[in-house]
C-alpha cells in the first residue's frame, strides 16, 4: 500500500473519514513552507508570488465547479464553509429592508452532517432563524414533494447534502435546484424573498458532477482532506450577488468574507488535489466502484447483515451495513486489532447513548443501528485490502456473536 | 460516526486485551443463579450465570460465566467482574463495587462508566435469583 510500510496485513477502509495526502499534492505544497513563504497581502515580490499562487489555485477550483474565480473563497474546512454560508446568509437577509418577516426560515434534512444541523440549531436557539428538518425515506432520500410543502413565505435557504457521509446515498440536488428555480420565479412576482440553495458536497467532489450551474446551487461547501489534500483547508462557492455577511472579521481577505492570512501552502495543495480529481476521474470511479461492489457482495454473504443507504443511488466509495447481534464499537476494535480501519454509527463516546441520527432518521431501530459498520474506499484502496477485510470481518462478527447472550 | 483511532487510546490495554481474549465467557448449564441486565435499545445487554457451592457453612461462587452484547467497555466490564467474583463468598461478592471493576480495568472513559455499574448489577441480580430459588 502506498505511503505505508507494514509488515503485517492491513486495510485502511475509512476514507470517508479522511484520506492520505497524495504525493503530488505534498510535492506541490512543499515550496510554500520555505522558499515561497510570502504573505499574499504584501506588496513585495515575496507577497506577489504568494498572491499569484492563491489566485491560480482559486481559478483551478472555479474551473472545476464551472464558476468564476471571484465566487470561490478559501476556508479552514467544510464545517467553516457551511457555518459561513448559513449564518452569513441569515444575517444578511435579516438586515435587508425588504425582508418583512420576523425571522428567516431554513429548510434542511434530518441526515445532514452535524456541521449543518448544529449550525441550524445555533440559529434556532438564538431566535435568528426557524428551521424545518425534512424526513428521509428508508434509503436516506429526501422527497422533493416534502421540500415543496415545507416552503414558506419567509424561506430563504434550502440546505441539502449532496452525499450522505454515513450511508453514501446521493440526494437529488439537480432536481431540488430546478424546483427552487421554479419557486423563485413565482416568488419574484409576489415580492417574496429569494430562496438560496446550499449543498454540502464534502463527500461528492471526487465522484459526482459538481458544476454549480448544473446543480443550480448558490452555495457549495467542500474540504481538502477527503480528497487527498491536507486537513485544515476548505472552500466555499458563493454565487455572484448572493447576500452574505462575513463571520470572521479581519484584514479583508477573501473578498472581505473571511479575514485571516491565507493558508497559501494548503490552498495550493487543495487546488492540486482538485486537479488530480479531474485526471483519471472515470477510471478511478470505475475501479473504486468495482471494489465497492465486491466488498458489498462479500459482506452481505454474512448472515444477518443488511446494506444501508440506497442500493443504486450511492457514491462508489461508501459501503455501509447493519450487522445483527453485534455492537459497532466492538467490531471496530476487533477489526483494528487485525489492522483494519473502519467506522460505525453506533452510540458514540460523546456520552450520548443514542446511535447515529442518520440511521434513526432512515427508520432503522436503535437496537439495529448500534450494529452499524461503514467501510469507505478511495483511489488508493487495493484489491488486496478488500480481500483482507473480507477474510477478517466474518471471523470478527462470529467471535462477537459467540459472546452475546441468546434470547 | 466513530473511528477506531479516535477512541482506541481511550481504552486501557486491559480493556483491549479483554475484548480480544475474554475470560469466563460463555454459559453455565443449569446455573444456580442467572440474570440479564441492560437493553438493546440503549446498546448493551449482559447475562451472568453463577454456580454456588458450600465450603463448610459458607456459600461461595464456584463458577461464573458471562455473555455480553455491547461495546468494548461492556464486554470488558462483565469479563473482569467474573474474574473478581470467582471463588469469593456470596457475602464478599455482594460487596463488589463498580469502582473496583473500573480500577481492575485500568480505568474507563467517563461515558462508559455505566458499563461497570451494569456488570455489578448483573451479579447482584444473579445472587438475588439464587437466594430466592434456594428458599423455595
Structural class of chain B: alpha+beta
Could you name the CATH homologous superfamily of the largest domain in chain A? Type I PLP-dependent aspartate aminotransferase-like (Major domain)
How many individual β-strands of chain A?
Answer: 13
Percent range of helical residues of chain A = 40-55%
Q: What kind of sheet is the major sheet of chain A?
A: 7 strands, mixed
Second rung of CATH, namely the architecture of chain B: Alpha-Beta Complex
Instruction: Give the name of the CATH architecture of the largest domain in chain A.
Output: 3-Layer(aba) Sandwich
Write down the secondary-structure element order of chain A.
Answer: EHHEHEHEHEHEHEEHHHEEHEEHHEH
Low-confidence segments of chain A, ≥5 residues, pLDDT <50? none
Question: Strand arrangement, largest sheet of chain A?
Answer: 2-8-7-6-5-3-4
Q: Please give the number of β-strands of chain B.
A: 4
Question: How is this structure best described in words?
Answer:
- The complex is a heterodimer of chains A (407) and B (136).
- By secondary structure, chain A is α/β, with parallel strands linked by helices.
- Chain A has two domains: 134 residues, Alpha-Beta Complex (Aspartate Aminotransferase, domain 1), CATH 3.90.1150; 256 residues, Aspartate Aminotransferase, domain 2 (3-Layer(aba) Sandwich), CATH 3.40.640.
- In chain A, strands 2-8-7-6-5-3-4 form a seven-stranded mixed sheet, with helices on both faces. In chain A, strands 9-10-13 form a three-stranded antiparallel sheet.
- In chain A, β3, α4 and β4 form a beta-alpha-beta unit.
- In chain A, α2 runs parallel beside α9 and α3 packs parallel to α4.
- Chain B is α+β, with helices and mostly antiparallel strands and 136 residues long.
- In chain B, α2 crosses α3 and α3 crosses α6.
- Chain B starts with a strand and ends with a helix.
- The interface between A and B is large, with 41 and 36 residues.
Amino acid at each position: 500500500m502506498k505511503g505505508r510500510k507494514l509488515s503485517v496485513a492491513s486495510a485502511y477502509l475509512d476514507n470517508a473519514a479522511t484520506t492520505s495526502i497524495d504525493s503530488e499534492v505534498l510535492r506541490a505544497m512543499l515550496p510554500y513552507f520555505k522558499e515561497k513563504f510570502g504573505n499574499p497581502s504584501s506588496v513585495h515580490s515575496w507577497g506577489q508570488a504568494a498572491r499569484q499562487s492563491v489566485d491560480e489555485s482559486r481559478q483551478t477550483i472555479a474551473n472545476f465547479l464551472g464558476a468564476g474565480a471571484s465566487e470561490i473563497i478559501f476556508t479552514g474546512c467544510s464545517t467553516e464553509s457551511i457555518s459561513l454560508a448559513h449564518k452569513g446568509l441569515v444575517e444578511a437577509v435579516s438586515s435587508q429592508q425588504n425582508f418583512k418577516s420576523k425571522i428567516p426560515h431554513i429548510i434542511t434534512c434530518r441526515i445532514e452532517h452535524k456541521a449543518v444541523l448544529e449550525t441550524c440549531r445555533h440559529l434556532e436557539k438564538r431566535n435568528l432563524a426557524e428551521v424545518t428538518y425534512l424526513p428521509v425515506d428508508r434509503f436516506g432520500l429526501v422527497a422533493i414533494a416534502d421540500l415543496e410543502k415545507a416552503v414558506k413565505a419567509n424561506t430563504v435557504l434550502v440546505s441539502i447534502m449532496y452525499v450522505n457521509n454515513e450511508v453514501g446515498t446521493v440526494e437529488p440536488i439537480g432536481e431540488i435546484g430546478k424546483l427552487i428555480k421554479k419557486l423563485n420565479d413565482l416568488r419574484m412576482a409576489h415580492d417574496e424573498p429569494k430562496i438560496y440553495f446550499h449543498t454540502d458536497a464534502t463527500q461528492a467532489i471526487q465522484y459526482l458532477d459538481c458544476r454549480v450551474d448544473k446543480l443550480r446551487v448558490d452555495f457549495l461547501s467542500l474540504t481538502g482532506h477527503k480528497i487527498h489534500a491536507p486537513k485544515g483547508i476548505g472552500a466555499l462557492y458563493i454565487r455572484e450577488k448572493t447576500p452574505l455577511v462575513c463571520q470572521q472579521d479581519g484584514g479583508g481577505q477573501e473578498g472581505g468574507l473571511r479575514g485571516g492570512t491565507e493558508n497559501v501552502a494548503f490552498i495550493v495543495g487543495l487546488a492540486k488535489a482538485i486537479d488530480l480529481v479531474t485526471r483519471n476521474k472515470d477510471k478511478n470511479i470505475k475501479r473504486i466502484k468495482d471494489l465497492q461492489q465486491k466488498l458489498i457482495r462479500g459482506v452481505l454473504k454474512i448472515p444477518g447483515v443488511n446494506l444501508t443507504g440506497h442500493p443504486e443511488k450511492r457514491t462508489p466509495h461508501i459501503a455501509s451495513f447493519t450487522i445483527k447481534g453485534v455492537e459497532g464499537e466492538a467490531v471496530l476494535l476487533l477489526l483494528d486489532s487485525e489492522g483494519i480501519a473502519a467506522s460505525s454509527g453506533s452510540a458514540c463516546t460523546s456520552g450520548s447513548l443514542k446511535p447515529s441520527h442518520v440511521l434513526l432518521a432512515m427508520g432503522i431501530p436503535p437496537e439495529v443501528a448500534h450494529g452499524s459498520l461503514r467501510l469507505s474506499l478511495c483511489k488508493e484502496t487495493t484489491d488486496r485490502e478488500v480481500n483482507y477485510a473480507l477474510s477478517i470481518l466474518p471471523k470478527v462478527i462470529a467471535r462477537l456473536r459467540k459472546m452475546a447472550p441468546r434470547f | 460516526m466513530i473511528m477506531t483511532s479516535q477512541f482506541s487510546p481511550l481504552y486501557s490495554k486491559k480493556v483491549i486485551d479483554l475484548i480480544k481474549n475474554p475470560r469466563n465467557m460463555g454459559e453455565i448449564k443449569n446455573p444456580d443463579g442467572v440474570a440479564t441486565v441492560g437493553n438493546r435499545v440503549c446498546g448493551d445487554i449482559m447475562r451472568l450465570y453463577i454456580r454456588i457451592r458450600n465450603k463448610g457453612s459458607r456459600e461461595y461462587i464456584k463458577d461464573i460465566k458471562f455473555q455480553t452484547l455491547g461495546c468494548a467497555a461492556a464486554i470488558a466490564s462483565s469479563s473482569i467482574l467474573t474474574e473478581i467474583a470467582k471463588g469469593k463468598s456470596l457475602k464478599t461478592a455482594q460487596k463488589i463495587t463498580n469502582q473496583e471493576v473500573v480500577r481492575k480495568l485500568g480505568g474507563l472513559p467517563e461515558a462508559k462508566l455505566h458499563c461497570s455499574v451494569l456488570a455489578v448489577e448483573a451479579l447482584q441480580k444473579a445472587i438475588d435469583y439464587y437466594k430466592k430459588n434456594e428458599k423455595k
